[in-house]
């Protein structure tokens, strides 16, 4: 699946807004993930998952930074996330189904904060972008 | 997801064994899919879906031949299946989840008829191949 020029532009534009609240959005997305899909907590036995926890905020930032990297290198997401891809393949081994769930939660957080900007077209572009990121992160599993 | 050299060898190997029965296996795959996953019948309201139906046989042949095309052009599956990809994107619009179901049934059929050939390694390669084919067929959906 490839992103069209229009889609890339839409992702870059919405990201410029999201970036200003990236950490908060990251933490919120993870909170949404753990409350709507409790099975995802299985990957974080070592975390304090209570609302506002330092670990949640730290991890939310990590996730959003990676997404920011992917936006910055939107023409070569694979290159930009190569190390993360290996990390997920050889060490983390997060079941691919969970990427859809996290993507969905990120989408909800972004939509909630930017209702007017999150038009159907921007929604589609952002969803496609997150799907691309997810594919890259699961590419080396086998 | 990229097919390794070994994957390609494994896929070609198993297909050389099944190619003489490809059409039969195609039909059996479809039958199994319609029975095990009845929701897939939604795409065939115009078909006689009884066991041994001429339409299932013909359609099984089509599916098998497309897979064989993909194997024959395993280094460029998206090129080989480009028209089929357009067809699925613009006309058929089969929900992507169903490709997994069809792939699963195909694996079962191969396993039943060629149990010793379908070693765990060959199984993995064949599954990867079927995922690659599905990815090509859904690549142009959006």
UniProtKB/TrEMBL annotation, chain A:
Q: Indicate whether Transport appears among the record's keywords.
A: yes
Mention any Pfam family matching this sequence: Globin
Entry keyword Metal-binding: yes
Residue ranges occupied by any Globin domain in the UniProt entry:
2-142
A GO MF label: haptoglobin binding
Give the GO biological process terms.
erythrocyte maturation; hydrogen peroxide catabolic process; negative regulation of transcription by RNA polymerase II
- GO cellular component term, pick one: haptoglobin-hemoglobin complex
Q: Which UniProt keywords apply?
A: Heme, Iron, Metal-binding, Oxygen transport, Transport
In terms of PANTHER family, this protein maps to: HEMOGLOBIN FAMILY MEMBER, HEMOGLOBIN SUBUNIT ZETA
Give the family from UniProt: Belongs to the globin family.
- Can you say what this protein is called? Hemoglobin subunit pi
UniProtKB/TrEMBL annotation, chain B:
Return the Pfam families for the record. Globin
InterPro entries for the chain: Globin, Globin-like_sf, Globin/Proto, Hemoglobin_a-typ, Hemoglobin_oxygen_transport, Hemoglobin_pi
Task: Cite the entry's keywords alphabetically.
Answer: Heme, Iron, Metal-binding, Oxygen transport, Transport
Task: Look up the signal peptide feature and give its range.
Answer: none
Which BP terms from GO are recorded?
A: hydrogen peroxide catabolic process
- PROSITE patterns linked to this entry: GLOBIN
Q: Which SUPFAM superfamilies match?
A: Globin-like
Q: Where is the Globin domain?
A: 2-142
> Looking at the UniProt record for this protein, which Gene Ontology cellular component terms does it annotate, in alphabetical order?
blood microparticle; haptoglobin-hemoglobin complex; hemoglobin complex
The family classification in the record reads: Belongs to the globin family.
Q: What is this protein called?
A: Hemoglobin subunit alpha-A
According to the entry, what is the taxonomic lineage of the organism? Eukaryota, Metazoa, Chordata, Craniata, Vertebrata
């Amino acid at each position: 699946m490839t992103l069209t020029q229009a889609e890339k532009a839409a992702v870059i534009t919405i990201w410029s807004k999201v970036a200003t609240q990236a950490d908060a959005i990251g933490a919120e997305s993870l909170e949404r993930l753990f409350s709507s899909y409790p099975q995802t907590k299985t990957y974080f036995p070592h975390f304090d998952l209570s609302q506002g926890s330092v670990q949640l905020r730290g991890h939310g930032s990590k996730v959003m930074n990676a997404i920011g990297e992917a936006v910055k290198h939107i023409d070569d997401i694979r290159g930009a996330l190569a190390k993360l891809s290996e990390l997920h393949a050889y060490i983390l081994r997060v079941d691919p189904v969970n990427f859809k769930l996290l993507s969905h939660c990120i989408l909800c957080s972004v939509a909630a904060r930017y209702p007017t900007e999150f038009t159907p077209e921007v929604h589609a572009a952002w969803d496609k972008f997150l799907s691309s990121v997810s594919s890259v992160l699961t590419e080396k599993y086998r | 997801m990229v097919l390794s050299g070994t994957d390609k060898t494994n896929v070609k190997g198993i297909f050389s064994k099944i190619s003489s029965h490809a059409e039969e296996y195609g039909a059996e795959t479809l039958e199994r899919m319609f029975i095990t996953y009845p929701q897939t019948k939604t795409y065939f309201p115009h078909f006689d879906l009884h066991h041994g139906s001429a339409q299932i046989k013909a359609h099984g042949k089509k599916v098998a031949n497309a897979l064989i095309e993909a194997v024959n052009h395993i280094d460029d599956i998206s090129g080989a299946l480009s028209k089929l990809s357009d067809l699925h994107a613009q006309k058929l619009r089969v929900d992507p989840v169903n490709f997994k179901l069809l792939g699963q049934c195909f694996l079962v059929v191969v396993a039943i008829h060629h149990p010793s050939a379908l070693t765990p390694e060959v199984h993995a390669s064949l599954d990867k191949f079927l995922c690659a084919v599905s990815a090509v067929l859904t690549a142009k959906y959006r």
